[in-house]
Amino acid sequence: MRTTIRAVAASILGLGIAFFAASGFAEVKEVRIAQQFGIGYLPLQMMAEKGLLEKHAKQLGLGDIKVTWSRFGGGAAMNDALLSGNLDFASGGVGPLLTIWDKTKGSLDVKGVAAINSMPLYLVTRNPNVKSIKDFTEQDKIALPAVKVSVQARTLQMAAAQAWGQDQYDRLDKLTVSMKHPDGVAAMLSGQSEITGHLTSPPYQQQLLQDGKMRKVMSSYDVLGGKSTFNTVWTTSKFRKDNPKTYQAFVAALKEAMEIINKDKAAATDVFMKQTNSKLDPEFVRKIVMDDENEFTMTPRNTMKYAEFMHKVEALRNRPKSWKDYFFPEVHNLSGG
Question: Which Pfam families does this UniProt record tie to the protein (predicted)?
């Protein structure tokens, strides 16, 4: 009799646990997502504006979830938040993604969820004597999001290696200064700052070039030999494993955000203006969003060139064989690079 009671109790408990998991109660009820500054984050801004993650989570049986959005000035700080458990999804340039993939390989195993765009990064100067990167001197300072580790910093190092040779890849590092994009723009436009160069992104680079005293020195597309990923989204393998439906909802939400943007880029501009409280001219921003140079896509492009360079200069211990090594399987069907 006691054996029967124990068996019945075990069955009830098993059913309860199964129901608990199937109902989605075992997964997180709050998802914390971080983005940075600029038009490159429009897919995430679209997700926030339309409540797409909440929508897809509900469709997958997770019920109502809370989505908390935050904004960081650079990928390095975002990675710290992810590793400390204060963030679920981080976003930023290819450099920070590769850095945290390498750092956590075999432990938290952070990988990319998807790319969120392909965009060129311009190095802009207000120094009339600078026509190429070889013209920068000790009197110049170049603003970028994070010295040595941001995608802008890595792009500048790659350009230096091309200009002076591989052993001189860090030649311009001593001229770089960590600065948020808006602060870098303000410093350049003031004309009073020590900042004479800014390696930035849309819309900040276009904003600078509206000033007749500014000129473009180089584009990341020139350095990488074509269109390349600027921003990606990443998370830990643990989060993906422990919250499979939430992860699935995130990927579906991001895909829908891309579809909405690419269906009507003019209308998508209004979402950027609203989400960022931008004071820029809407038509100025619309022109940037609709520029053929800028694409909103989940497909990684030219990321392996960053990976190979970073491994060569010993910024990565692990050398990936393919871009698929540092992106989760959900995007492996894409023709990435």
Answer: NMT1_2
Structural domain contains residue 23: no
Computed over every residue of the chain, the mean pLDDT equals 92
Rounded to two decimals, what is the model's pTM?
A: 0.88
Are 105 and 238 in the same domain? yes
Boundary (domain end) residue, out of 224, 240, 269: 224
pLDDT tens, position by position, 257-280: 999 999 999 999 999 999 999 999
* pLDDT tens digits, one per residue of 284-331: 999 999 999 999 999 999 999 999 999 999 999 999 999 999 999 999
Domain carrying residue 142: 122-224
Please give the pLDDT value at position 21.
44
The residue among 242, 334, 275 whose CA lies nearest residue 28 is 242
Give domain status of residue 262, yes or no. yes
Distance from C-alpha of 154 to C-alpha of 95, rounded to nearest angstrom:
7
Given 175, 192, 224, the domain boundary residue is 224
What values do phi and psi take at 99, rounded to 5?
-65, -45
Together in a domain, 65 and 136: no
Angle at CA of residue 222, ends 38 and 162, nearest 5°:
115
Distance CA 295, CA 228 (A): 10
Average pLDDT, integer, range 230-238: 97
- CATH number of the domain at 159, please: 3.40.190.10
20: CB partners within 8 A, 6+ apart: 26
207 neighbors 39 (Cβ within 8 angstroms): no
Q: Which one-letter amino acid corresponds to residue 92?
A: G
How far, in Å, CA of 186 to CA of 286, rounded? Answer: 22
Q: Are 286 and 266 in contact (CB under 8 A)?
A: yes
The pLDDT, as a whole number, for residue 173 is 98
